[in-house]
Amino acid sequence: MGAASVGVGLSVPASLGAAVASVCVADSDGVDVDWDVGSLGPEHPARTRPRASVIVVTVLRDTMVTDYPQTVREPKSSIRGWDMSRKQLARSGGDLEHLGTDDTGATMLHLDMDSFFVSVELLSRPELVGRPVIVGGRAGRGVVVSASYEAREFGVHAAMPMSRAIGLCPIAEVIPSSHGLYSAYSKQVFDLVAEVTPDVLQVSVDEAYIDVSGAVRRLGSPVHITTQLRAEIEERTGLSASVGIAGSRVVAKLASARAKPHGQLLVPLAATRDFLDPMPIEALPGVGEKTQAGFAKYGIRLIGDLAAMDEAWVGRVFGAHGHHLWRSAHGLDSHGMDRQVKDRSISAEHTFGADVWDLSELEHELLRLCDKVAHRVRAEGKVATTLGLKYRLDDFTTLSRSITLEAPTDLAREMYEALGPALRGLRAQRTKGVRLLGVRAAGLMDFAVSGRQARLDEPEHAGREAEVALDDVRRRFGTEAISQASLLRRHPKR
To answer: Which domain holds residue 34?
Structure first.
């Protein structure tokens, strides 16, 4: 079947006939421009645009495109302005074929569900399998929750503004998030994990570290355990998982990223440095833009470059964080599973549809977020010892405040009272519009162990009973079925 040549080497199937199309052009500066080329029939002359690096064709008529041109699947790393996510960066590195097969001592697994939110949605939409799919909100300032691997080929990744994602991949199918569905499937997955071992650190709804050292004698080698677990998850849920197998959490996490999608990767203890050294330094957990730029000043661009440095020098230049990263570059964890559990946090945040200037509206949203976080804290049988506030302005400047509580809490009211002064202080200091607000509960401890100290000024029948009663209703009728009375008022007009 013939094809019509359009623009910069883009092949358009002749079967499209004279379908009307728009072309999204990403120029060499990474700027997206919608470019109407009109009728693209087989006889249509080629159109060109200076400095164009990639072209994506979107059919606007009822013509079904079943085979996307390979030219639009150009790796995003070759296109300026298309940033790679951390997971995508972590998939780059050296040759994996010669790592070996000895799994002795490689008893730490990192399980990461493959494109979890999208995969759950596709269970009821099998016709979209193999196509670019994005889960998230379209309206206003919606963001990408998750993207299928086909969409990621275009540069789409989680937390990206939806407007940007659609610009990169206009042929994507956008699906709104299904609240409650993901937690149900997550529970199924981790119930299966619990059958293997209780030594699990779940860090998110679709990700966990699993220590199988206590299960080897009963269930077999780490590789065998992993193979069986992945097969069981897929059989019971219809979802796929990728797993990294290594001697430490940091290496296992990087290995699971290299195994994606739908795979597993063993990093033998003896091959740890061979695996880590060729990887970019920004793939290492804990290396953000500022740290990466700091390392670059000293020619540290690969994990192996950092590993080759003297630890004392790294500590002097980069402080305690430098010591931690140096250990990670050697495949060593800085602390054990128990400490990591304590370091877990529960958070919630909200991006406003339009910049918010009114303090009362910000306070209302703060209470709503505290209610959401407190509900999750109680559901896990925890109390928080530290609270965090995330405050992002309209120019994307992000400020944060951290508060250590006098006594642990699992109540929304107490979280709100603790964070309220910080919110008002930030609003007084920065008069710009607010784009995003977030709340984090950290320093989590078991309620049964730490308890919750009643305040001296607290009435005998305090608000805890009311919040626990809300939990009971939510368990029966869903999280949106009931809320605190103070959250029922209308948002004030701006």
So the answer is: 3-78
Same domain, 239 and 286: no
406 is a catalytic site residue? no
Same domain, 351 and 470: yes
**Among 47, 78, 109, residue at a domain's last position:** 78
Count up the domains in the chain and report the number: 4
Cβ pair 40, 21 in contact under 8 A: yes
Q: How crowded is residue 157: how many other Cβ atoms within 10 Å of its Cβ?
A: 22
Do 191 and 105 belong together in one domain? yes
Torsion angles phi and psi, residue 408, rounded to 5: -60, 150
Q: Is the Cβ–Cβ distance between 23 and 57 less than 8 Å?
A: yes
For residues 264 and 101, what is the distance between their CA atoms, to the nearest angstrom?
Answer: 12
What DSSP element (H or E) covers 34? strand 32-39
Which residue among 207, 311, 349, 380 is the active-site one? 207
Tokens of 109: 């697994």
* pLDDT tens digits along 180-189: 788 889 999 9
pTM for this prediction: 0.62
Tens-place pLDDT, residues 276-313: 999 999 999 888 888 899 999 999 999 999 999 999 99
- Give domain status of residue 12, yes or no: yes
CB of 79 within 8 A of CB of 54? Answer: yes
